[in-house]
Fold this protein.
Amino acid sequence: MKIAVASGKGGTGKTLVAVSLALSLSQGEHVQLLDCDVEEPNDHIFLNPEFSRRESVLVQVPQVDETGCTHCGECARVCAYHAIAVFASRVLVFPQLCHGCGACSYLCPENVIIESGREIGVVESARVKGIDFMHGKLTVGEALAPPVIREVQRHAQSGGTVIIDASPGTSCPVVEAVKGSDFCILVTEPTPFGLNDLMLAVEMVKKLDLPFGVVLNRSGTGDGKTLEYCREEGIPILLTIPLDTRIARLYSKGIPLVEGIPEWKERFIELFAKITELAYEGSGGIKR
Amino acid sequence: MKEVVVLSGKGGTGKTSILGSFAALSEKKVLADCDVDAADLHLLLNPSVREQEEFWSGQIATIDEEECTRCGLCEQLCRFDAIADYTVDPVACEGCGFCARICPVSAITMQEELAGNYFVSETKYGPLVHARLGIAKENSGKLVAQVRKKAKEVAEREGLEYILSDGPPGIGCPVISSISGVDLALLVTEPTLSGIHDLKRVQGVLRHFGIQSAVCINKWDLNEENTLNIEHYCSEEGVLVVSKIPYDDVFTEAMVHGVPVVEYAKGPVADEIEHMWASLVRFLRQETRG
């Protein structure tokens, strides 16, 4: 089963939930944890893995052999991203704008464009604390997160439990991370910002037609409107984590909740049981 | 005119609460919410919309079923795995248009996509430019650029001194789009290992593009050792730590009441944010002279 952890608002506790869930399950079954927040991956901070594999993520960018080029300009015309400019006697390629669609090289009438890989990030993997861990890391200064996320996703195993930590928001990087999951956990906090962004995240998972439920973090702060919203919409609250300075301090030091306060392990195992039930038994109170 | 953007790398460090407070403290400014896929600034500023415009992003391929001969060439050539069973997955399609060009029977057309809206609103603190990206849409970077362009127009039209923008989390395309040409990026961080890790990456982006930055450590007393590490990192990096805000429940209480924290309660948090804004103003004025 593939479980995605997403949130809308950042800093609500996705990493805390993803890491604790993975650690709680790792003794009983095969668990893979994929950190798909490739702009700011944080899971590794809580696991301290020694990476045993490192692969480049490449985008195929064009290289023009100008000796055979007639400067006809076809490549520039077909490029939707303005990544190629053709002048009377020169061709300029802007690799950072290129999405690697391959149109220019395929459509070049003289066949003088070849593609070469440009590294925009890496995927690193390790076996740590009983978990098959992997994360993607976008290179600092690069803009395109989705190809790095796709590369991490490509390594998702078909058996066992796969847990995916997504980035905040509701646009393409999040969709790339959560699509194809069997269930999506939305982590939020009971504040106006948390609720506003939860509502956006709910729209997203509904659009992707995923079963989902909410983990409410820092309960006790803010107001009661998030709970009210979930009740009205029939969204199950899967787990409640209180606002607690002990939990915040553990987090600040990079200690997973279930290691700092082991009683929590039981609750994450229960969380998993609820998810399994909701994912397999269909609606379970979720309006889809 | 000076443009300041608030960033953090990690989400949830307090960007919006701090920017909302700057809105209350500053004169002659336009506000811009550049966190277009989870915009929250409007919850503090209570805007009334004056202008609304459509945001048309890139294009999406559509296959005409009647014309399609099911040759499969488009599916074979699409690098984004956006075509399966002779239909296009609009979420996966990146709008490159390759398929439309190579389809032997011209059954594929590219259609402009309405990907969201952006607004110019009035708030009690001044004009606000904000946006709403459609759910699961692409091109948030382009929408950020659009919001900034509009904010600049408003600033020029109304003779305003500052553009204050609330940036997106992360380091990717919307962040890069939010920083080009700004005068200062304020990085709001927290003393957690994740906060520090993410601060270093976003500072790396600013260094890469040659953008001046300053750091604010929010909830600094949550972990004093980590705060020291941040200060150490900043001094090595040559970045000014412009403010240290203590942990205080008033941050959340102000949010619940829908007002900037400096207007909600007097006290150490409000003092610190006022002091920070004064320092930033001094810094920006020096920049003008220097």
Q: What stands out?
A: Chain A touches chain B through 61 residues (CB under 8 Å). Chain A has two domains: 2-30+157-280, 59-119. Residues 179 and 208 of chain A are 7 Å apart (CA to CA).
